[in-house]
Specification:
The structure holds 2 protein chains of 2 kinds. By secondary structure, chain A is an alpha/beta fold. Chain A is built from 9 helices and 10 strands. In chain A, helix 5 packs antiparallel against helix 6 and helix 6 runs parallel beside helix 7. Chain A is globular. Chain B has 4 domains: 194 residues, no CATH class; 110 residues; 216 residues, no CATH class; 156 residues, no CATH class. The chains are: A alpha/beta, B alpha+beta.
């Protein structure tokens, strides 16, 4: 498997990192979290980023999503270069072009499910596209729960609201940071199913960090990270193929 | 367990900062008051002991100057007899009264009411021990005076200069013979002291050859009590003698009592400040316990008892209280020192003396600080003890206690209703009894509202929510919701502000209502353009009245001259002697029956209430005993409506003056031809001989004179309540800092999905404003209710009483409360905006 693009696939790039490095500390205590990583996330593609703990997978996502600063290299979301942006512009970029799903603390407890879904538009001061929001809500199947507050929803339902929120503003790209990490397998499967559907049916671009091969199997492509470098990638993964790769990789890691 | 407490304190230094500040300020107020009072009372005691140091026996005459048969004081003969007694070194006779000194610009030097004149009483050696001359010597001729050092300096007078001195008569010029220092109380109070030659002073203040006071000094070795025994038989009936020691003790006791009430007032306000602090402390410990749930559960799991958990929280509180108390005490001492120099700067002279640091303030400071902190931490401590050991195993954060507020609300409603009932009952009862009910009711209502405040927070804040969402968008919406998220905490924070504002508003409503009533009364009743009175509030001399009557451009003049008649064999009745004809031109006299012109015929006019009580009608004849005990009969000529500016009986000055040697003229009202004008005022001042001791007030001055005291009082109250308000602000800071800390993840998420820093700040700031304004609204409501109730009990004493809600002031309070919120949010909002999103949203 190489990085060459496969024919028939959309070639437009939603986000791209080039020679991206992130270094913590200086001198003796220096830690290289990302080491000249170059990666592209294509439009309407569901990408999973995998790797062992400390491999830099979360850092990569944070840098590409404009949540964290990087030491060198370049990150582009669409046509925008992130490296030159100030906090204010980055915030605006996240608000208008990016959707987020975190492992937890996705929702504001004081807002109802619907209010949480439309929150990014509220912040931007935009009127939500009602038809679109309705179709998103229909897809996640929470139409009867919109007036509930997060505390009245189960963990799976809360994550589904988070997915809806990420989709509702039609961002150019959605980033998920272990979005199913806190869920049981059934709820997790639902959430992942929604994410995959959004890519297949709505043409959404999704990038997700996970350590779960089953979750990664929902993606179109898996990028493997180790020691701050991209070591491999896999298209049309299955849970088994990912697991095998991880095992191999683990073994390699042990012998090297 | 104590080691745990100590570690916890050190670990949460920043979060305990506001608690420490609150306790510190309260303790500083308490200890500052105590140290200041101790220091002051010591200084005054020393001073009074010093001023009686040489005095063996002091004689005071209480003779009635109106009684022509009695001796007016201690005669020269008696003084000589005393001086000749065995063991007496010298006896000094003294008379005193009002004397004002003009500075070269013609203005009065010193505070009006404590400007004093007395006589220079040289002994055989030509010296008066009461006065130490720094320049020149005592006055010995009738055209000489001596002045105290400070007044001479204020007037820039040198020995030999001509000085204009006013007593209650015309101004006279004297030559300054000397400048002296003295321990005299009038001078220490910021007044001036003028010494005259004895004969001049006697003529001015009493009668030639007589004294009001005699101070006796003892020869070496002579016993004070023996002298006292020898002096007593020599004295006239109306004079009393005491040893200098006894007088010094008596004065010290008076000073103690005077300072005692000042101390109580200050401690009362300190108490309010500390009470407000309780809410802040309690909030802090509640949060500390909530954050430490797992830790406490673990301790319970490994065998700590409930009591040990509570004790550890209390120990932590005690430690915090102790540190805060000690710092607070130091601050209090500084406050006491500052207050003293502050008073000196305001011309209130305080005798020198060392700073007194007795054990009481130290003990009180520490006890108050530690106990208040422990008391406030007691409930959180009990809640900590209820954390079950199993909470340590739960991976999920223990949810905040969402215990139902039902019990709390029912208790709160009952207590509030009880308080409100007491207040309403008091208002309808009226009088001082009514005020008792109101006092008790106010206490219960305040407690009840504090209990109810969490319940109130939701509807009240829901009411203002549209105001937040409209202009501030999503930040406003989130702020409004955050403010009601933890009703208990919001309630406790708002309570602190509510208490302060209840008092501030109550006082304002009362003060403004009474002030307006008085002002209306003044403007309604006074038709005169000017009012002339003595700067010291004493009596005006008849010569002033004559001078004004003759002044240019004056159309009507009437004195308000006090007298007391015994009417119809009854008790003494206060009488206003006035100039018939002119009185109705300078004051409003509403005649109900008869003709007020009858005053000119020597008849009297009687106020309606008195007339009704006695059953007098115009035409009736009333038996009278005048102040010189002569009897007669006066005819009732008219009945008029009661007025605050007139005694219940009016009579022509001629009738009174026939029976009184020294008429007591309180004020003279003057109406001028052209109405009020600078030239008219100047003409009056000139007519009075440019007398610095007399004040000529125009209508505005009169209004200020009567209503001004209330404003001054209100400002003092505002100042004293400021401390409670500062602590309330600290409470808002504290609550916000806690909220921001607890909501890190949320704020991080909001930042991630695109809320910029500016709006994060705005969200926190608006939450602070909402909480502050909520507290202010509750306080203003309760305060206005209390003001209404207390005002109602005063209504029958103030004619024309109508409740005035000072909307302007209330508006200012609300705006200030909003500003308090903005100010309190400065630091927490900055913290929230600077929050590292990635750390915040990281799962543990």
């Amino acid at each position: 498997m190489t990085t060459a693009s496969i024919a028939g696939r959309a070639t437009a790039v939603a986000a791209r990192a080039t020679d991206l490095s992130k270094i913590y500390g200086q001198g003796e205590t220096q830690v290289v979290a990302l080491d000249r990583v170059t990666v592209e996330f294509r439009q309407a593609e569901f990408t999973a980023i995998m790797g062992p703990s400390g491999s830099g997978k979360s850092t990569l996502m944070h840098c590409v999503a404009g949540l964290d600063t990087f030491s060198s290299g370049s990150v582009r979301i669409g046509d925008t270069e992130l490296g030159s942006l100030k906090d204010k512009q980055l915030t605006k970029l996240r608000r208008d072009k990016i959707g987020f799903i975190f492992q937890a603390f996705n929702l504001l407890p004081t807002l109802t499910a619907l209010e949480n879904i439309t929150l990014p538009m509220d912040i931007a001061g935009r009127k939500p596209d009602k038809q679109w929001v309705d179709s998103v809500i229909r897809m996640i199947g929470l139409a009867d729960r919109l007036g509930h507050r997060p505390a009245q929803l189960s963990g799976g339902q809360q994550q589904r609201v988070a997915v809806a929120r990420a989709l509702a503003s039609r961002p150019e790209i959605i980033f998920g940071d272990e979005p199913t990490g806190n869920l049981d397998s059934r709820s997790g499967a639902e959430v992942l199913g929604f994410l995959r559907n959004s890519v297949r049916e709505m043409g959404q671009t999704v990038v997700m960090v996970t350590h779960d091969p089953v979750a990664a199997a929902y993606a179109d492509r898996v990028v493997f990270l180790a020691d701050g470098r991209i070591v491999d990638e896999m298209f049309q993964p299955t849970a088994d193929s990912v697991l095998d790769f991880m095992k191999q990789f683990d073994a390699k890691g042990r012998t090297s | 367990m104590f080691r745990t407490a100590l570690r916890n304190v050190l670990a949460h230094k920043a979060r305990l900062l506001m608690t420490v500040l609150a306790v510190m300020l309260g303790v500083a107020f308490v200890s500052g008051t105590l140290v200041f009072a101790d220091t002051l009372s010591n200084a005054f005691r020393n001073q009074s002991a010093k001023s009686y140091d040489d005095v063996a026996v002091a004689v005071t005459s209480y003779a009635d100057s109106e009684d022509p048969k009695a001796e007016p004081g201690v005669s020269r003969k008696t003084l000589d007899e005393i001086a000749a007694l065995d063991g007496v070194a010298a006896a000094y006779g003294r008379v005193a009264g009002f004397a004002g000194v003009a500075d070269p610009g013609g203005k009065l030097i010193g505070v009006g009411w404590s400007n004093k004149g007395s006589n220079f009483a040289p002994g055989k050696d030509g010296k008066d021990p009461a006065y130490a001359f720094t320049k020149g010597s005592g006055p010995v001729r009738d055209d000489q005076v001596a002045l105290d050092v400070d007044s001479a300096a204020k007037g820039e007078y040198q020995v030999g200069d001509r000085v204009r001195v006013a007593t209650n008569g015309p101004v006279k010029e004297y030559t300054l013979s000397g400048v002296f220092t003295t321990e005299d109380g009038a001078v220490n109070a910021g007044g001036s002291l003028v010494l005259f030659d004895t004969a001049v002073a006697q003529k001015q203040y009493l009668a030639p050859g007589y004294f009001q006071d005699v101070t006796v000094t003892a020869a070496p070795g002579a016993s004070d009590t023996k002298i006292l025994d020898a002096v007593k038989p020599l004295l006239p009936e109306s004079a009393e003698a005491e040893t200098g020691q006894a007088l010094a003790d008596k004065q010290a006791k008076q000073i103690e009592e005077g300072l005692g009430s000042l101390k109580q007032v200050l401690l009362g306000f300190a108490g309010i400040a500390l009470f407000v602090g309780i809410f802040l402390i309690s909030n802090t410990f509640t949060m500390l316990v909530a954050q430490r749930t797992k830790e406490i559960a673990l301790m319970r799991a490994v065998g700590a008892s409930r009591r040990q958990v509570t004790r550890s929280v209390l120990a932590e509180a005690a430690l915090v209280g102790l540190v805060a108390s000690l710092v607070g005490f130091a601050l209090g001492v500084a406050l006491a020192v500052g207050l003293r120099s502050g008073m000196a700067a305001f011309d209130m002279k305080i005798p020198d003396g060392p700073l007194i640091l007795s054990a009481t303030p130290v003990v009180a400071a520490v006890a108050v600080g530690v106990l208040i902190t422990m008391f406030a931490a007691w409930l959180p401590g009990r809640r900590a003890a209820k954390i079950p050991p199993v909470a340590a195993m739960n991976s999920v954060h223990a949810a905040a206690t969402t215990k139902s507020l039902v019990l709390r609300n029912s208790v709160g409603s009952a207590v509030t209703a009880l308080g409100a009932a007491g207040i309403v009952l008091g208002a309808s009862t009226g009088g001082s009894g009514g005020r008792m009910y109101i006092g008790a009711g106010a206490f219960f209502a305040l407690i009840g509202v504090i209990i109810l405040i969490p319940l109130l927070s939701r509807p009240v804040i829901a009411l203002v929510r549209p105001l937040l969402v409209g202009p501030f968008g999503v930040a406003g919406k989130l702020a409004g919701q955050n403010a009601v998220r933890n009703p208990r905490r919001t309630g406790a924070t708002a309570s602190a502000l509510a208490i302060g504002l209840t008092l501030v508003t109550g006082l304002s409503v009362l003060g403004v209502t009474v002030g307006t009533a008085i002002d209306k009364m003044t403007t309604d009743n006074i038709k005169a353009d000017y009012m002339v009175s003595m700067a010291n509030g004493g009596d005006l001399d008849q010569s002033a009245l004559r001078a004004l009557e003759k002044a240019d451009g004056v159309s009507a003049v009437s004195p308000q001259q006090n007298a007391y008649f015994q009417l119809a064999g009854d008790d003494f009745v206060s009488v206003s002697a006035v100039t018939p004809g002119d009185i109705t031109k300078v004051l409003n006299v509403d005649v109900v029956a008869g003709d007020i012109a009858a005053l000119a015929k020597g008849q009297i006019a009687v106020a309606e209430k008195t007339a009704k009580k006695k059953g007098w009608k115009p035409g009736d004849s009333v038996a009278v005993t005048f102040s010189d005990k002569k009897k007669g009969a006066l005819k009732v000529g008219a009945v008029y409506q009661n007025s605050e500016f007139l005694s219940p009986v009016l009579v022509d000055t001629k009738v009174v003056n026939a029976h009184e040697a020294k008429p007591s003229i309180q004020q003279i009202f003057v109406k001028t031809d052209g109405g009020q004008s600078a030239a008219g005022e100047k003409a009056l001042i000139n007519a009075l001989g440019d007398n610095p001791a007399m004040t000529v007030m125009d209508r505005q001055d009169i209004r200020n004179e009567f209503g001004g005291a209330i404003n001054t009082l209100l400002n003092i109250m505002y100042g004293l309540l400021a401390m409670a308000l500062i602590i309330a602000v600290l409470g808002v800071v504290n609550t916000l800092a806690m909220s921001v800390f607890e909501r890190q993840q949320e704020i991080g998420m909001l930042r991630a999905i695109g809320l910029d820093r500016r709006r994060v700040k705005r969200m926190v700031r608006l939450e602070a404003v909402v909480i502050s304004v909520f507290g202010a609204l509750v306080g203003i409501g309760l305060g206005a209710f209390l003001g209404w109730a207390i005002g109602k009990t005063l209504a029958d004493q103030i004619p024309g009483y109508t409740l005035v809600l000072p909307w302007d002031r209330i508006g200012i309070f609300l705006v200030l409360a909003g500003l308090v919120g903005v100010l309190a949010a400065l630091w927490p909002a900055r913290n929230a905006a600077r929050l590292n999103m990635l750390n915040a949203i990281k799962t543990e």
